[in-house]
Specification:
globular, Ribosomal Protein S5, domain 2, alpha/beta, binds thymidine-5'-diphosphate, 482 residues, Rossmann fold, 23 strands, binds magnesium ion, disordered C terminus, 3 domains
């Protein structure tokens, strides 16, 4: 058989080119083209066999009909079950992405051990570590006695053959997909072609056998799961495991989930004895608060169905640069820009001569617009040098007009705040009318507009300002509307 015409596939975007070139025309990346069989060897079926195969007719179905709930297997680790939407679905494939060293292997050996101890067949295939290393970790985690079946293998065909033998495993962990290789393609392990072909073969096995498959994927520097995104669309769920290297919190987040929600998070703490579930993340995120310092506000947020309180920290300082700096960690920079613009335009707060830094404590990432009010409070508090009340939480979305708009699930946020000992809440005015909000026992401080909040914080700051004799950077603000 004549060799198929080669084509060159960009390892970053997947575009195919007929000849090699230094730069991919589709995505503009340099040095990303690699040779691949034009036949798309990744499909695993020999070209000759495919050419002979005739089309087969199949029955078309209606939308209405039986749809039993996906059979699930709970891992026994609540934070994982929450994020997956109730456990691992039979025959489904899950990709767990994260930076090297974040704790993916630790999490999965813990999950596999929990399942194995519950009497399910769990197999852990490590392509990165020797069996002895995995054993050592299990010992350290106190899991050495769990009946997990273990192997250090990277050849996909051998793995599939081994797993097809005997009872179907209930859970198979492949750590990591980047180390796997299959005979069907010639590229080196770790290339897009290999990662795609290996994943395809393993996914085929999972779908056929009904085993739940977890693929580990390392994330490259620019935040993409290496084998850039080629695996993401092939799997049923993508979870990402995140955290700040220096901190002990780890957050498991669903990026995509065909069988569950994508807004739930699981919170863990990395300890000497492995990952510990954190049932009440608010306590953890607020554990090291600097009470009485200006520039911090507690945001009553919501992650999926779970209320989470976090501290937003702001630093506003006169700039030495022509263009002042704006730096954000854990929040959307364009939302910060918007809040700053509203403060300038409607509240008379001049920030154009100041550097602005905003940080979410604990390494959490917040996507909710409801954090606007807490961010604004922290910023103004820092600028005015006026600490916010330590027993207050903030939530509310700020509109471009400076009004504070209602947000979802206010009662749940208030309840969580009350549970953690907070006494008052600054919140959108409309929430007060909501009867359920009153049940929390918190003193409600409704805020109709940002001007009102700025005035209140500035008034708190007057005392300190007068005492220190500093120039007042917070100019009197025009009261517009309410
Ligand atoms: P690991 O699971 O190997 O990370 P990944 O598979 O994502 O690359 O975790 C490695 C880090 O976790 C390592 O820096 C040590 C730390 N660790 C602990 O702090 N406690 C433990 O019990 C274990 C097993 C690891
Ligand atoms: Mg690992």
């Amino acid at each position: 058989m004549a060799r198929a015409v080669p084509s060159f596939v960009c390892q970053a975007c997947g575009a195919a080119h007929s000849r090699w070139q230094g730069r991919c025309e589709a995505c503009g990346e340099w040095n990303t083209l690699a040779e691949e069989d034009a036949a798309g060897a990744a499909s695993g079926v020999p070209v000759a066999a495919r050419a002979k195969r005739k089309g087969r007719t199949f029955a078309l179905e209606t939308l209405a009909g039986e749809s039993p709930d996906a059979p699930r297997l709970r891992s026994g680790i609540n934070e994982i079950d929450r994020v997956t939407g109730g456990g691992f679905v039979r025959g489904s494939v899950l990709l767990l992405g994260g930076d090297p060293g974040i704790g993916k292997s630790t999490l999965l050996i813990q999950a596999a051990s929990a399942l194995a101890r519950a009497g399910h067949r769990a197999v852990y295939i490590s392509g990165e570590e020797a069996v002895a290393q995995v054993r050592l970790r299990a010992e350290r985690l106190g899991l050495a006695s769990a009946p997990v079946e273990l192997a250090a293998e990277t050849a996909v065909e051998d793995i599939v053959a081994t797993l097809s033998h005997g009872a179907t495993p209930r859970l198979v962990v492949i750590d990591s997909i980047q180390t796997m290789w299959t005979d069907t393609v010639e590229s080196a392990p770790g290339t897009v072609t290999q990662v795609r072909a290996s994943a395809q073969a393993l996914i085929r096995f999972a779908k056929k056998s009904g085993a739940s498959l977890i693929l580990v994927g390392h994330v490259t520097k620019d935040g993409q799961i290496a084998g850039p995104r080629v695996v993401e669309h092939m799997v049923d769920a993508v979870l990402s495991f995140e955290g700040e290297g220096s901190q002990q919190f780890r957050i498991l987040r669903a990026v995509k989930n065909r069988f569950g929600p994508t807004d739930e998070i699981g919170v863990f703490e990395m300890t000497g004895g492995g990952l510990r579930e954190v049932a009440n993340p608010s306590e953890l995120f607020l554990s090291e608060r600097d009470l009485g310092t200006p520039g911090t506000a507690v945001f009553a947020g919501l992650e999926g169905t779970r209320p989470v309180l976090v501290e937003m920290q702001a630093l506003v300082a006169p700039t030495a640069l022509g263009t002042p700096r704006r730096a954000v960690v854990g929040w959307d920079p364009s939302r910060l820009a918007m809040v700053l613009a509203v403060l300038e335009a409607h509240c008379g707060v001049k920030l154009s001569g100041h550097d602005v830094y905003l940080n979410i404590a604990g390494g959490l990432r917040i996507a909710e617009p409801a954090a606007d009010l807490a961010a604004a409070a922290a910023l103004v508090s820092s600028l005015a040098g006026a600490p916010l009340p330590a027993d207050a939480v903030f939530f509310g979305e700020i509109s471009l007009s400076g009004a504070v708009r209602p947000v979802a699930q206010a009662p749940a946020r208030l309840k969580e705040a009350a549970k953690l000992g907070f006494a008052r809440a600054y919140l959108p005015e409309t929430v007060r009318a909501d009867g359920a909000a009153g049940e929390s026992g918190l003193t409600l401080n409704p805020v109709s507009g940002l001007t009102q909040l700025v005035a209140e914080i500035a008034a708190r700051g007057q005392g300190q300002k007068a005492a220190s004799g500093k120039k007042d950077t917070l100019r009197p603000f025009p009261h517009r509307g309410g």
